[in-house]
Design brief:
The protein has 233 residues and is α/β, with parallel strands linked by helices. It has one domain: Rossmann fold. Helix content is 31%, strand content 26%. The chain is built from 7 helices and 10 strands. The two termini are 14 Å apart. 42% of the residues are buried. The C terminus is likely disordered. The chain binds adenosine-5'-triphosphate (ATP) and magnesium ion.
């Protein structure tokens, strides 16, 4: 899917003492089969930007479009369904349900689709094996490590096979070999036609050959388009 942001501004708590101008006049286009990385200091607006692409909230002003569809014009109910079908979001803070097992967390996005429990588990098993976390699948999320939580969050985001993958600091808790495995999965997904946006401080990610473009965020603005990867679409 094609992602387009046009003159996007995002304010939090506008007019209040705690107001933050988190995104300032952002223009961005990400093509299908492109992997774009966004770097930038803490608090520069990276997660906010991903949240707008991911339909978690609408811009204060400006336009966000997915395949030409204006997200801010969609009614909330439609937006929820749209998000569920189109977006795989790997949250910086995981957003898993602590009481549920790894398996239950990962298969949750498949429940509304009416897929049988057996098929749900088969799909999850493949991802959990790939992410080397199969041995924890019956553990509640509350009882696994940071890196295991991150891998569970990655599996949950990918289980629906969504066309858009938004990964917020996806390797922050992973070691080198798991981080490289994550990038390898991203490479395969790109081959399958996905559109991928990753925020990262991790040189293993932003310096990876699979990254087509690395953009810098600073104080709510996007700058510095650097071509880093070798991918030629
Ligand atoms: N829900 C919110 N309400 C108010 N302000 C917020 C909210 N979420 C983020 N902010 C503020 O908006 C700015 C951008 O936050 P954001 O989380 O997008 O930054 P980030 O680049 O992802 O940072 P990090 O690298 O630490 O994850 C920060 O100043 C933050 O304090
Ligand atoms: Mg963030």
């Amino acid at each position: 899917m094609m992602i387009v942001l046009e003159s996007v501004d995002k304010w939090y708590n506008r007019g209040e003492v705690n107001e933050v101008h988190a995104l300032k006049d952002i223009d961005l286009q990400v093509r299908e089969t492109e992997i774009v990385c966004i770097r930038g200091p803490s608090g520069s607006g990276k997660s906010t930007l991903l949240s707008i692409i991911g339909c978690l909230f609408v811009p204060t002003s400006g336009l966000a479009l997915l395949d030409g569809i204006k997200l801010s014009r969609l009614p909330d109910r439609f937006l929820t369904v749209y998000r569920r079908e189109k977006i795989g979001f790997i949250f910086q803070r995981f957003q898993l349900i602590p009481e549920l097992s790894v398996m239950a967390n990962v298969t949750l996005p498949l429940v509304p689709l009416g897929i049988s429990p057996g098929e749900r588990e088969r799909r999850a098993d493949r991802l959990l094996e790939r992410l080397d976390i199969q041995h924890r699948k019956r553990f509640p999320a509350a009882e696994i490590s940071g890196g295991e939580l991150q891998r569970t969050a990655i599996a949950r985001a990918l289980i629906n096979d969504p066309p858009v993958i938004l990964a917020d600091e996806p390797t922050a808790h992973l070691d080198t070999s798991l981080s490289l495995a994550f990038m390898e999965i991203m490479g395969e997904l790109r081959q399958g036609g996905k559109t991928i946006v990753i925020t990262s401080h991790d040189p293993l990610v932003f310096g990876h050959a699979l990254i087509d473009r690395c953009l810098s965020m600073r104080d709510g603005s996007l700058a510095g388009h650097t071509e880093t990867g070798s991918h030629d679409p």
